[in-house]
Design brief:
This protein is mainly α and 250 residues long. The chain has nine helices and no strands. The chain folds into two domains: 32-116 and 220-245, Cytochrome Bc1 Complex, Chain D, domain 2, CATH 1.10.760; 139-214, Cytochrome Bc1 Complex, Chain D, domain 2 (Orthogonal Bundle), CATH 1.10.760.10. 48% of the residues lie in helices and 0% in strands. Bound molecules: heme C (HEC) (2 copies).
């Protein structure tokens, strides 16, 4: 044949080899992703081969989709960013499947499958809460409520005000309904524990006043349309691992 010249195989062989390696690698990556989807999500971190795949893919996805808000996973109270490294969760208990649900459907994201059961009412508004008839608080009551929370943290300066705040907490304010009679929060609706030292927005009097006056409704976006199922699961595994080993850099 006229197109064949002896030296060609020297050029063609490496090209064919590189192409073959690429095909094998792609197939291998696809197998690894399929394995992630077949596995029980809670066992992935304990299975070295699956954990390696998930953490590499998950880190890449976290940097690309989550880091703009969550940074390296640590808290950011100015922006209401929860600490993903502390093992303390607003929703659920930190299972991979629970985190995966947040990655796919978000929190107050507009996706009907996301979390959106409750938000913090805005008590300086005439109608603090759209979903329930909760009455507003006066500025004096807001002051009392700050004293009440500070009392529970051992930093109150006015015991009488704290006692008045306690009454509003358990009565007209309706706080007990979401944060619990004991103020320890409710992970089924994302109502934070008000007694521990983990703050989403902060526990200073000025920040508390703003929380009570204006309300809070943090949003984590839904990624069901942007990620493959395996990518979403890998990111969830990576986030679950952040809490197990503390903060990762980069
Ligand atoms: C636009 C900013 C933003 C982006 C992007 C974002 N999040 Fe969030 N995320 C938030 C905020 C704000 C909250 C707190 C929501 C609340 O107040 O309930 C949150 C909450 C969470 C929680 C719940 C934490 C807890 O303590 O229960 C998880 C898990 C989470 N995000 C994971 C992710 C992952 C993984 C990604 C990337 C796929 C991501 N988020 C992308 C803003 C963001
Ligand atoms: C309808 C349910 C609901 C009611 C009623 C409610 N909260 Fe909340 N509260 C929430 C939710 C949900 C959040 C978290 C908002 C977010 O994630 O952005 C929150 C957040 C907060 C925070 C911020 C905590 C932090 O870590 O920064 C404080 C403080 C708080 N609530 C206190 C109160 C007090 C005091 C009352 C009564 C006056 C009250 N809440 C009434 C649901 C409620």
């Amino acid at each position: 044949m006229t197109w064949w010249r002896p030296g060609w195989s020297v050029v063609a062989a490496p090209v064919v080899l590189v192409a073959l390696v690429a095909v094998v690698r792609t197939a291998h990556a696809r197998d690894a992703r399929d394995a992630l989807m077949r596995a029980d999500p809670e066992t992935i971190l304990a299975t070295p081969a699956l954990a390696r795949t998930a953490l590499a893919l998950g880190h890449q996805g976290f940097v690309q989709h989550c880091a703009s808000c969550h940074g390296t996973g640590g808290p950011d109270q100015a922006r209401g960013m929860p600490d993903l490294t502390d093992g303390d969760y607003l929703y659920g208990t930190g299972k991979v499947a629970e985190i995966e649900q947040i990655v796919l459907h978000g929190i107050r994201s507009g996706d009907p499958r996301g979390w959106q059961l409750a938000a913090m009412p805005a008590y300086s508004h005439a109608k603090p809460y759209a979903a329930e008839p909760i009455p507003p608080m006066t500025p004096a009551q807001i002051g009392d409520m700050i004293q009440f929370l500070q009392f529970r943290h051992g930093t109150a300066t006015d015991a009488a005000a704290a006692a008045r705040g306690a009454k509003v907490y358990a009565g007209s304010g309706g706080c007990y309904d979401c944060h619990g009679n004991d103020a320890a929060g409710d992970e089924a609706i994302g109502a934070p524990n008000l007694l521990d030292d983990v703050w989403l927005y902060g526990g200073s009097p000025a920040t508390l006043a703003r929380t009570f006056r204006e309300g809070r409704a943090g949003v984590s976006p839904a990624y069901a349309h942007a990620l493959s199922p395996a990518e979403a699961r890998a990111i969830a595994v990576y986030v679950a691992d952040l809490a197990r080993h503390g903060r990762h850099d980069g």
